[in-house]
Amino acid sequence: MAAKARSALDEMNEGEFKRKESTFRKWIGKDLPAEAGRYHLYISYGCPWACRCLATLAMKGLEDAVGVSVVHPTWQKTKPDDYNDEHYGWTFASPDDPPFKSPNGHGSFPPIDCVPDNVNGARFIRDLYEMSNDTSGKFTVPVLWDKQTKSIVNNESADIVRMFNEAFNEHAKNPEVDIYPEHLRKDIDAVNEWIYPNINNGVYRCGFATQQKPYEEAFEQLFAALDRCEETLGKQRYLTGNTLTEADVRLFQTLIRFDVVYVAYFKCNRNFIHEMPNLRNYVRELYSIPGIARCVNIYHIKTHYHTSHPKLNYYAIVPEGPAEWWTEPHDRDQKFPSAK
Ligand SMILES: N[C@@H](CCC(=O)N[C@@H](CS)C(=O)NCC(=O)O)C(=O)O
């Protein structure tokens, strides 16, 4: 019998959330050629991991080389005809489809800005994993798909960001953009090393904890790391100095979701990001970059988290606030006039 299909809410170890390693790790530029039109990226605008890939794609100007599909923000039953299969996950929709309900039947969430799978005609992200011989999951986004071999190339956002940054320059509108430059690689890797567990994944460790102690530990580590970012960004424009890099693109995805979702939904409530002046202005600056702003969809962000996990939000009520402070002007040019 096939193993039970998993999702993030099953990845618990004594009350602590432990994220599973990604399973598909082929590399375009090494294992496969970087051909235009051959690969397709499947994302959710709700997902911070998927959005760092989309932001890199947009910043490099790869829209004509790599196609993109966008799932509905609300998880649905992925084997609707199989009573015994209890998996809920990412589902495709066309903008003219009727609204979805939450997994336990609450609310009404229209498929605004969804882009169906015009490559495989799949109904669920799970279908793509099963076509690639993974039947037990988890069935995560992002997924980078190879149309030629009809299988998943890679489902690890950290890899996909780097492939988009370096492998497709010949097809990129902005090949000069380099968010992982050779001379900063060591520094970027060092920053990612503490930001990933404590902040990017740290908010999930708070939100998905099922016991008090692991939640408190994650909470403490999260805000200690945010304080460290606040201090660093008071002294320099970006995380590794004067140049915007992958480390910033990765941190931004968590910061833009923080006041909207994580403060309340994941119980990350020591303070809002907009109460930390350097982080507030840093988010505003990154949001003013068109390739980054284009990947921020607040409807999908709010709707995904609040409507997909009935255990955490039974009635799928989506909070109204906060006001969109990140669209306001920033002070980073005046504060760091020599950085670009
Ligand atoms: N290691 C993956 C993690 C991706 C991930 O966890 N994605 C979440 C959405 S934010 C997902 O698709 N979860 C599906 C599930 O839990 O069933 C990456 O960074 O690419």
Automatic annotation (TrEMBL):
InterPro entries: Glutathione-S-Trfase_C-like, Glutathione-S-Trfase_C_sf, Glutathione_S-Trfase, Glutathione_S-Trfase_N, GST_Omega-like_C, GST_Omega/GSH, Thioredoxin-like_sf. PROSITE patterns: GST_CTER. Residues 170-314 form the GST C-terminal domain. This is G12399 protein.
